[in-house]
């Protein structure tokens, strides 16, 4: 069974552990998911400069771990920093959580929206949707209020704020699926999934499923 490397570009070991738990729950029996964390940078990426800097951190993490025999890699920050660079270097399948969740949300031609906490990442997130050829299906982003890092530190407040953003995606934008846009929002994404009649896409699980399809294993 595959050995999967999950790279967290957010410099938080606790967040990496949470992400690994979510990915492992989606993985097939016998698949091992190992997390590695960016050494430099903020504990939560909240703007475009931090996202761009994280691309180099992703490469550093990969190069430090590359000789350990990985079968695939998940880059677990929404915006997919370093994914294209890593694909040219790694020699194994590489999946980003924004890419995976957008592809999942847009299945069957669905219109999809994004609920997230980071207003300063709207431009690169929308660029990612366009790069994937999904701009016509993308219904827009709805944002929570207040400081993203403070909100993310309060699990209940985060879930409720994101729930309101999801509802706006559905009611105001006509979204037929909604992505919870952020790796550190992984637990909130799982909690929100059963609360709505439309699919709520948890990006880390979507990335695990996409990577398994590339590796021809059943999650």
Features:
219 residues, Rossmann fold, single chain, four-stranded parallel β-sheet, globular, 9 helices, alpha/beta
Notes on the structure:
The protein is 47% helix and 16% strand. It has 219 residues and is an alpha/beta fold. The strands form two sheets. A four-stranded parallel beta sheet has the order 2-1-3-4, with helices on both faces. The protein has a four-stranded parallel beta sheet with strand order 6-5-7-8, with helices on both faces. Helix 3 links the parallel strand 3 and strand 4. It is globular, with a radius of gyration of 16 Å. The relative contact order is 0.18. The mean pLDDT is 96. Belongs to the HyuE racemase family. This is Aspartate/glutamate racemase family protein. Pfam families: Asp_Glu_race. InterPro entries: Asp/Glu/hydantoin_racemase, Hydantoin_racemase-like, Iso_Racemase_Enz_sf.
């Amino acid at each position: 069974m595959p050995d999967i490397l999950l790279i967290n570009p957010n410099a938080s070991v606790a967040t990496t552990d949470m992400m690994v738990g979510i990915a492992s729950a989606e993985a097939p029996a016998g698949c091992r998911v190992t997390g590695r964390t960016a050494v430099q940078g903020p504990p939560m990426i909240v703007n475009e400069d931090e996202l761009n800097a994280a691309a180099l951190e992703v490469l550093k993490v990969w190069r430090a771990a590359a000789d350990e025999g990985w079968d695939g890699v998940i880059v677990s920050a929404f915006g997919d920093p370093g994914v294209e660079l890593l694909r040219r270097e790694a020699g194994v399948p590489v999946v980003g959580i924004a890419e995976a969740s957008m592809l999942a949300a847009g299945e069957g031609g669905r219109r999809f929206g994004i609920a997230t906490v980071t207003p300063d990442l709207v431009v690169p997130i929308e660029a990612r949707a366009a790069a994937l050829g999904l701009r016509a299906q993308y219904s827009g982003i709805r944002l929570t209020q207040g400081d993203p890092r403070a909100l993310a530190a309060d699990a209940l407040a985060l879930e409720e704020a994101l729930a309101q953003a999801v509802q706006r995606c559905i009611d105001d934008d006509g979204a037929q699926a909604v992505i919870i846009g952020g790796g550190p929002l992984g637990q909130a994404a799982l909690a929100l999934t059963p609360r709505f009649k439309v699919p709520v896409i948890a990006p880390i699980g979507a990335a695990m499923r996409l990577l398994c399809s590339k590796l021809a294993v059943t999650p």
